[in-house]
UniProtKB/TrEMBL annotation:
This is YdeI/OmpD-associated family protein. SUPFAM superfamilies: YdhG-like (SSF159888). It holds the Pfam family DUF1801. InterPro entries: YdeI_bac, YdhG-like. Coiled coil: none annotated. Residues 17-113 form the YdhG-like domain. It comes from the Bacteria.
Length: 198
């Protein structure tokens, strides 16, 4: 199935918002942006750079602008979906009785394209190095398989585990946490993986 067919399927799956998503999609299709599926939803890019996307949720549907922080937003329609976490991404939410003003949406999409062409972009800060607490270091020296498995994890998962151990205040708690996470690390599982597909 190509991306276009996947997007048709995405819209069909979200039948509550199908007509609205189709209107938004047609606005994007009338631009120079490339339409792809990314993170399971319709996404639009220019020369490989993510510009925008559309998504459906239970109580609303939205347009995402990946570098929306640079918008003038004269109409004050954009929100930061995750205050304190999201630096550049902005979302325009629509609810059940909202009318899609196609010319206005097109104006915002055109601004997103122009910003992309001008290279306006929030640079992602590289995560700092993993600081391994002494107690976890000791566990590695006693269990080579644990150490090898830990080295095979992504830096993000390594940071989660290191932080989980170092955040404990008492030595006994640190040891209990190391006992708990040892089989998880050996199995290549991240500390919070079970919550990521909710």
């Amino acid at each position: 199935m190509n991306d276009s067919a996947k997007i048709d399927a995405y819209i069909a799956k979200h039948s509550k918002w199908a007509s609205q998503l189709t209107i938004l999609r047609n606005i994007f299709l009338d631009t120079e942006l490339d339409e792809v599926i990314k993170w399971g939803s319709p996404t639009y890019s220019l020369n490989g750079k993510l510009v925008a996307g559309i998504a459906a949720f239970k109580n609303h549907y939205a347009v995402w602008f990946h570098q929306g922080v640079f918008f003038k937003d004269d109409e004050k329609v954009l929100v930061n979906a995750q205050e304190g976490k999201t630096k550049a991404l902005r979302q325009w939410r629509f609810e059940e009785n909202d009318t899609i003003k196609t010319q206005l949406v097109k104006k915002y999409v055109d601004e997103a394209v122009e910003n992309c062409k001008q290279g306006k972009e929030v640079k992602v800060e590289r995560k700092k190095e993993v600081i391994i607490p002494e107690e976890l270091q000791n566990a590695f020296s006693k269990n080579k398989a644990l150490h090898e498995a830990f080295k095979g994890l992504t830096p993000g998962k390594q940071r989660e585990y290191a932080g989980y151990v170092s955040e404990a205040k008492r030595d006994a708690t640190k040891q209990k946490r190391i006992e708990k996470i040892t089989p998880m690390i050996i199995n290549g599982v991240g500390l919070h993986d079970k919550y990521k597909n909710c």
